[in-house]
Amino acid sequence: MRIELEKRAGASTLYSILSPFIALVLTVIAGGIMFALLGKDPVSALYSFFVEPLLDIWSLHEIAIKAAPLILIGVGLAVCYRSNNWNIGAEGQFIAGAIMGSILPVTFYDWHSPLLLPLMMIMGMIGGALYAAVPAFLKAHMNTNEILTSLMLVYIAQLFLDWLVRGPWRSPDGLNFPITRDFVPEAVLPELISSGRANLGFAFAIIAALLLWLMMRYTLKGFEITVLGQSERAGRFAGFSSRRMIWFSMLLSGALAGLAGIAEVSGAINKLQPIISPGYGFTAIIVAFLGRLNPLGVIVAGLLLALTYVGGEAVQLTLSVSDKVTRVFQGLLLFFVLSCDTLILYKIRIVFAGRTAEDGAN
Hints:
The chain contains 15 helices and three strands. With 362 residues, the protein is mostly helical.
């Protein structure tokens, strides 16, 4: 006996639309079961996780802060994946952008200029794009698997950041802690409103999502991305270059991840330290798929995943559970999203010694 997946003749449009919502409901149910097994009241735990953060102004600002990098990275990955290029190394490009963008405020600490912040953002995007150029080059010219190369580069970026803040960039005023100097005020992203910490990084994310949605829907480049993603052979007949698309999609996603990195460092942390991300680059993969690889859907998905970070912190304090609860919820959500999508496209067959269960029924 074996289990096979057979492609359906046609995918249901209705279920394709409902798939993220079904996945979310299943995640909530599974989360409730998890809390019950931990000896916690599922209803109060889920309330603390998903509802309570929405009732407090401070928590809403924290959601916006955490949603900004998720949306920025997620929209870049959505475009990349729709072109059939699988950038898994956004976490490394996030760190590379943070490092590149921090060169000016760290090495030219006494420079106070209105140009400082714009230059930091530009350099952050360049840093992320250059780091994404490595797997792009290897795939375009050597046919190397970009999943492996982009993922391995994440660990190089993490170790390089750790070396920088413990070595040449360590602050002389940091009491020997592995941190850089605090950024000067001209190098800090301003707050959106005075009632909390949410900064311009969130505005960058929304603008980027809207621009990429317009590109995907109304421009030739968006049509090229869709065609090459669905069929490289059809794209070649249309005169599109898969090699140029590799470069375009990887550099675009890398630049947005780099912008997310420097915006996070400049807006929320105000210095470099060994850990600047709780895994935004990997969580953004969930964001991209939960948003159906649509930039507008990514905005909603980014806010939802940001809620899991804030909600996870809330239940740690109120229920004394592990900080791994957030990761479990995010993993469950990705599992159910991919499972629902698989069952929409394929049906399950059970084969008994050459005969299927359907044949036996007949």
